[in-house]
Structure formats: structure tokens, C-alpha cells
Amino acid sequence: MSIKRYNVRMAGIGGQGVVTASHILSNGVVISGGHSSLVPFFGSEKRNAPVESYVRISSEVIYEIGEIIFPNVIMIFHPSVITLGKSYTMPFYTGLKQDGIIIINSRTPIPFSKDEEREMADVGAKVYYLPATEIANEVAKTELATNMAMCGAVAAVFGMPDLISLAGSVKDRFVGKGVVVSGGTAALDSAIEKKFAKKQKLLEANMKTLEASYKYMIDKGWAHPDADPVKIDMAAISAC
Amino acid sequence: MSNLDFVAEGKPADWVPLGETQTVVDPMEMFFKLPRKTEFITGSEAARESIRRMNVDVAIAYPITPQSETMQQAGYLYDEGYIKDFYRGEEEIGVMSACAGASRAGVRTLTATSGPGLMRGMEAISSWPGARVPMILMDMCRVINTPLAIQPDNIEMSFMLNTGMLLLHAEDQQDFYDYPLVAAIVSEKVDVTLPCAVSVDGFFVTHARGQVSMTPKEYKLPPRDGWASAVPAMDNENPPARLSRDAPIQKSNFISYHMHSSWQQEVFAAVERSAKYFDKYLDGCIEIVNPDADEFLVASGAAVSQSREAVRQEGEQGRKVGMIKIKTIRPWPMRQLIAALKNAKRILVPEFNQAGWLHKELCSTLYGRTTGTMIGGPRVYGGMTMPTEMILEWLADARKKQL
Lengths: 240, 403
Known about the structure:
The complex is a heterodimer. Chain A contains 9 helices and 6 strands, in the order E-H-E-E-E-H-E-H-E-H-H-H-H-H-H. By secondary structure, chain A is of the alpha/beta class. Chain A has one domain (5-238): Pyruvate-ferredoxin oxidoreductase, PFOR, domain III (Pyruvate-ferredoxin Oxidoreductase, domain 3), CATH 3.40.920. The N and C termini of chain B lie far apart (64 Å). Chain B is an alpha/beta fold. Chain B has a 7-stranded mixed β-sheet, sandwiched between helices. Chain B is globular and about 75 Å long. In chain B, strand 7 (166-170), helix 8 and strand 8 (195-201) form a beta-alpha-beta unit. The longest helix of chain B has 17 residues, at 257-273. At the A-B interface, helix 1 and strand 2 of A face strand 2, strand 9 and helix 11 of B.
């Protein structure tokens, strides 16, 4: 790993799978041999309410806990985090470190105020727009896979975890050991499982979404040189 | 329970509780010798795995955030047969009172709560040490002050400092797996016989994932021996059960002054006697990083993790900063702290509460025993995170002002 540490703040709205995305990214890093920790932050569990989750990624042991106040990567899962202020952190780029990266789920650029543009420019922020919901709808045929598109994108930007480890983490989440996230997430699990007759189909749709957003970031020139767009082999993942 | 009881609960006639398939091992074997496997799990899951290996007889709790997920998991352990009895109480006074009764009956008892739940149960909890009821209280800290909040803040620990409870402060998911197991064993030592709380900073640890190294689930701690106790289980002819009905030692309808004061002395002496066991099972009641440094960060719980990172970043800048992690708040490791800090020039105490209870404890210990400057902070509370940058700023500021 060439880069020592990423501190990621994910912000989205309830029901999008922000917390799940943080578990998947974090576990993917651990599967790939790196170090990671995460902490979610949300109030009452309800759809469309603000949700944040924080992921630390490092090539060394991680000591810090808690929210990430000074991230070097910010992921915005829904434009309303910015446009409607559905966020615990206002403005959304607060605390971004010098030369940090912002990945926003939006096909079109968001019209920022001059002050906002200046403040982001002051810290040399790089803003990447990713149509994550469109990719999810197109590839997985459901916007519920938006979080997968976001995971694939950030993995490409970091060049880690590799796609196979990330896919292994997705498998862990849905058909493996599972993870205690929250009661609301358990309910969502059963909803998503109804949508897909078989978990295998759910997995395949998620993997394809990961691949698609990963490739999107490479095509845009936003990916890390280490990003390798391998095809996820479902048989190999099943054997994980 | 007989198999008929299990069948009534919907189990097959040949069902065997998984707890009965576990092998009992000596605590030292469990803590230091058995092979361990590392998993990347949340603090609530680490707590579940700890309970699985704890040989718990009865677990009683009332849900409250952020404790709920752990006790929900404990419900699964009951279903699998790792806990012999389990139920949800009506509220915390009832739960904590029921726990006292269960422990008095001589069985290993576990409960868990958080912030306002701890406060509601406090009347019963503060009666436990004098009643000499060993048990494990998992305490997932959260805000208790108004306005209502469900965020992390460990002010509630200060309410337990002078109750006679044993009190450990877990730093991370690993500690929240290890400490409850140690608590169960030390709590039941004959010369201790006291309840032990294991506090942890809620959400930051309970709802976050970390690496946890665990022994195989096929092994469990030895069961509680109810007869090996400072106060025999259910013996109404001995204190404390007899205290309130025994004419010769009573004044009015309560206990004599002398009897009560000697009983309190004995409870707090028992707290001190527990230190030798914690020292053995926790590999020291404190951990010291960079013992020869001039500047020290002294912390407990999640503030230790932030302090470790601050020490690392200071080290990268060529400055050696020391760090002390206090594992046992009660017993308070007074002698070790004096020895470690007597030559320190500057001591900062980062905390996740407004009152700075750890700073106060440390000040009363070090008064007249160090020439170093005590700095009460940095502190965050009400759910705030303490960024490492904040500790670094306080260090820089203290150097600049030559504190």
C-alpha cells in the first residue's frame, strides 16, 4: 500500500445502506490484509433521516475510535445531504483535510454557492460526481444497490480493497456470518431478500454493480493506479 | 431445567443446551494459554462472545440504547443453551433487584444497561456491594444529562465510584471481550465477593467494528461455586441478610452504627483485595507506554485509543510522550500511578465527560507526590468525538505556555 491512511466520512439518508456500505468497505479492507475500523452515527432509525458512518483504513494498526472530524475522503450518498441539509455535518465538507476527495452520488454537478466553492477550493478538494443510483438501477435493477456502487467507486479511488476482497465482504454481509448492524437493517434485509428470489441473484446483482462503478471511476481517470478492474468470479467468491 | 421444560419451549426432545457441550477450563488457561482466533466484529458482538464463554446461569436486563444489541444477542445465547435462564425485566429497579436475588441464590448472574438505565437502577445497584452479591454488570455508557441524547459520554461511571462496586473501563472491542470474563472470576473470589461493572464507551465501541482475538467457543469458565463466598448464599443467619431483623445488633429498626461502619470498611477493603486478582488476570491494572517520558497522557476507556494515536503522531515528530491506560477504576491503582508519574513534568487527562472525574481521582492521588503540572483535559461530552488533533493541540498549547 503506497498511501498510509484514509479517513472516510460517509453521509446519506436512512434506507440507502450507508452503514452497510461502511461495514462492507471496512471488512473488504480487512479481508485484503489491511487494517480498518468503522463507526456509524444515526439518530432514530427511519427512512430519509440523516445517517453518517466513518471508516478508517490504514496499512498500520489503528488506535483511534469515534467519528472522523477531519476526513480526507467524503462520500455523499444522496444529493439531499447537500441540497436539503440532511446531514449531521454542515456544510458537508466541514473538516476536509488538504487535497481531500469528495465523491457525490449525482449525475450532474450540484450548484454550490460561491462561498462553498471557495471553501472547497481553499483546501484543494477534488470533487467526483458518480451516478451511483443510475448505475444501481441499470445494473442491479434496483436503487437499493446504490451503496454497492458507492463501495465500488471508493475502492477504485483508493486502489484498495481489491475487487475480489470487496466481493468477499459483500458475500460475508449477505450470506456469510452476517453482522449485527441494527434492527432496521435486519428489516431491510428481509425486504431486499423478497425482491430477489434467491440470495445468489442478490449477490450477483451486487457484484455487477461493484464492477460497474469501479470501472466508471477508472474510465473517468479518478482511480488509483493500483485499481485493477478484474472480473468478479462468482464461483471463486462462493468458495471464499 | 428438565428436557420436558425444553420441549415446552419448543425444543426437540433430544435437545442438548450448547453450554453443556463446552469444556470447563481454568481461568488462567482461558485468559493466557488457549489458542485465539481474531475476528473483525462489533463491540456488541464481542460482548456476546464473552458471555458465551462466561458460563452464565442467569441474565436479566431491560433494553436501553446502546446496550440493547448486546442483550438481544444474549437472548440468542439463551436460545442456543449457553445461558441457563434469561428474561427481560420490566424496568431497571426491578432488573437490578432481581439480579441481587439471583446472585444471592448462588448462581452466576449477568446484566447490562446504559446511562439513564444505570441511573434508574442505581438504588438497587448501590445496595449490591453491601449485600455481597457477585455479578457482572456490563455498562455501555451514554449521555444521562438533559437534553435527552443517545450518544456516548461516560459521566455515569462517576456515580459508581463510591458504591463499593468493582469498576473496570474497557478501551475497545478486545477489552469488552476480555474484561467481563475476568470480572466474573474476580467478582466471585471468596475474599472479594463483590459485583463488578465493566464500563465501555457506547457506540464508539459497541456499534463499531474492531479486531477481537478470542478463544474457541468450545471452552467456558468454571461455574460459580455459590458456597465459596464471603457471605454464604441464602444464609439468613449471617449478615447482611440478618442485619435488618436481628435484635441484638439493631438500634431502632435499623443496624447499629458500629456494625454498619465496620460493614462498609469491609466492603471497601474487599475492593482493595481484588487488586491482586485483576493484576494477575489483566496483566497489570495499568498499562504504561514510554515510561521514561516527561509528558504523559493518562486515560481510561476510549480516551486511551485517542491517546495512543496522539503518542504515535508525536513520536513521528520526534517527541516522546508517555501514556498510561487505567484498566481498573475500582480498585484504584494508586501505588502504581504514583510510581509511574512521580517524575512526570506534565500530565494531561483526556476524558469523554464534562466533570473530569478521572482528573479529580488522579489529582487526589498525586497531590504532594509529583512536581508535574496536572492538566484537566482535553474533554469532550454530549456525544462528541475527541479527535487526536485535539490532544495534539492541548499538548502544543501546554508546551507553549510552559505549563
